[in-house]
Prior knowledge:
The structure holds 2 protein chains of 2 kinds.
Chain A: H1 11-31, H2 37-50, E1 54-57, E2 60-63, H3 67-74, H4 78-93, H5 101-122, H6 128-157, H7 162-171, H8 173-193
Antiparallel strand pairs in A: 1-2
Chain B: H1 33-49, H2 53-69, H3 74-82, H4 86-98, E1 103-107, E2 110-113, H5 114-137, H6 143-152, H7 157-186, H8 195-225, H9 243-264
Amino acid sequence: MAHIPDGVLSAPVLATGVAVTLAGCAIGLRALDHEKIPRTAMLSSVFFVASLVHFPVGPSSVHLILNGLVGVALGWTAFPAIVVALLLQAVLFGFGGLVVLGVNAMNMAVPALLCYALFAAIGRRDSRKLSILAAALAGGLGVILTALMVAGSLALSGKEFDAAARLTLFAHLPVMAIESAFTAAAVSLLLRVKPEFLGMPEPQEASYA
Amino acid sequence: MTRPEQTSSTIAHADDECDAPRQTPPLLRMIDPRVRLLVCMAFALATVSLSHLPGLLAALGLAIGAALAARLEPGATFRRMASLDGFMFFVLALLPFTTPGSPLFAIWGFEASHEGLTRAIEILLKSNAVVLMILALLGTMEQVELGHAMAGLRAPEKFVHLFLFTVRYIEVLGREYRRLRTSMRARGFTMRCNWHTWRSVGFLFGMLMIRSIERSERIVAAMRCRGFQGRLPSLADVQTVRGADRAFALVSFAACIALFTLEHA
């Protein structure tokens, strides 16, 4: 997962991250009424648990980011869901840091939102194939956009990080392939069993009023 | 304060759980969680603002002191510090070669600069000081307590609810995940680097999501049945800040300010 630790980034980048994350959380929380909290929390935990799964790649292993899937499932609420998961990872495992939490959340949640938009644009209720294709694209896009944003945060923090920024992009290519296949599979199952959850083409929440 | 059953990191490493109660709890763990959260944030901010070696060493010293006072288990803590993402390790390893400055040594014709090495060491000290302080001050409290601390510090109520529910469900989902993995293993599945693995684990998580959505629907129904109106009653009872908490806060903030002035004086 793309956790940048504290102490790497420059102050303007950190401040931008905090501002974007606060704004995203504000919008996300407004959309979140208390009946949806359990469902959002479930997905936040899926996000957390999935980041602990290691996939073997050659002699090493990678783990997924899963922001594409979370974005597709949650939309704007992905912001607070991702912040909660990152906060727990920092506290439990020491991943990332505190001051940098805003940037880390931004780097995962902004791509999640774009994946949501992409899935809403391409996915169709009447075409399973198209929806699965959209999911595969969203899975890959989430990773590559996150890698781009991590690379951008590094590059904007100092010229000396340029090489590392480029390396970040390459390091995420295998993750992108895996996550693309992963997200397509997960969404194809969701489409078959619980299509209303993906709210296609328009969000249709089960209302109990 | 009522707590749900143990909600810690059993999914990941049940073995390196560092807060099994053995003797009397150390003083640091008795400090009010709100105070600990604020102190941790102040410390992180002060540390990140540092850029000279003496200040950074002092910050790391403070963090080590806190870790000792919190009686963190050395082995588990060390492993966590070392897990500083493999990728970040590369970022740091590249720094000496990409920062211009006076040459120090060369590998395969690439010159490492003195400035770059210093920069990498600074970052290493900073990130480890902050992580150690997080583990000492926040990692030692129940995550539920952390949620209540955030509520006490006026974090948005819905955010706190989301946090508290997530803490609970990580445990539930982790268990479900292990059960599904066991049944896959029973059918001869092993993780490899191929399409089949990625798809199968994708299906696993799809299944996990479906089950969790259905579970959350049952939870919502149960909560509605009990008249849940969007507030948790336990968030309303606020603990008073005791003298010991005040003293701890005073000393810690003084230390943070000292760190800051040491650097910028």
